[in-house]
Structure formats: C-alpha cells, structure tokens
Automatic annotation (TrEMBL):
Native source organism of the sequence: Falsihalocynthiibacter arcticus
Keywords, ordered alphabetically: DNA-binding, Transcription, Transcription regulation
InterPro entries: AsnC-type_HTH_dom, Dimeric_a/b-barrel, Tscrpt_reg_AsnC-like, Tscrpt_reg_AsnC/Lrp_C, WH-like_DNA-bd_sf, WH_DNA-bd_sf
GO biological process, one term: response to amino acid
Protein name: ArsR family transcriptional regulator
Domain HTH asnC-type: 5-66
Amino acid sequence: MAVRLDDLDRKILSELQRDAAQSLDDIATKVGSSKTPVWNRIKKMREAKIIGQQTVVLDAEALGFEACFFVLIRTSEHEGEWQQAFLKALLERPEVQEAHRLAGEIDYILKVRVKNARAYDVFYQALISEVRIYNVTALLSMEEIKSTTMLPL
C-alpha cells in the first residue's frame, strides 16, 4: 500500500526520528499543527509500516561494548539450505547488529559489536562451527565517525 507523504508528514517523521519520546503536543507545536491531526497522521503511517518499531539508542561503549567489527564473508555455498542455516545463525547472535547480502566479490557484510577482541573470537568460532564459510575478513573499527538511523527526509 503506497502512502503519499506531504510536507507535514515529513515534518512529523523528522521530529519522530529526532526524538520519538517527545510528547504529541510538542510534535504538533514544532510542525505547526494541532494534536489530533498529528496523531491521525502518525497512526496512518504506522498502519502503512512507514513507522516501524520504536526503540531507544544505547551507548555501546558506556555499556562495555568497545569493539565494533565489520565482517566480510565470502562463501562458495549458495544453496537454500546453507542460506537458511546462515540466516538462522545470524539471527540467533545478538552481537550482529546489521547483516547485508552484497553484490560483487564479497557475499555478506556484518556489523558485529562485542566487548573486545576475545569476545569477537568467541563469536567467530561459534559462527564457523555452524555454517561453512569460504573466507572471513574482520575489520576493526578504530573510530566511529558517524552513525545514524535517521533518513534524509
């Protein structure tokens, strides 16, 4: 179901991206509308799945997750059974924050957040014990320069 978004919808979405915990009154004031129309638009966008799960952004380093690895995976396996086992392994691992299937020489890239290099090795050993992987390259992020979930509306 395609939903047409107007300028007010985009303003509402921008405010929700900035801070989803702000009150409906605050959002309405900031976008130049009243509470009821803003609520109705938010409800419509939730029903259309434009607005998904609402959550909180935690500070990984403050919680002791100091190591972020980008894991490049090449596989010689492309059968459905292997893909299902690989997907299951990724979904069961909370360390995997993102996983993408790629076009090109690398088949998959994972963003893995762990406490340290030793914790990454535990993750790696568990993953390769469950699914056969041709080649794995782990890149340690030295500094996070930018990270956002906000879309440029």
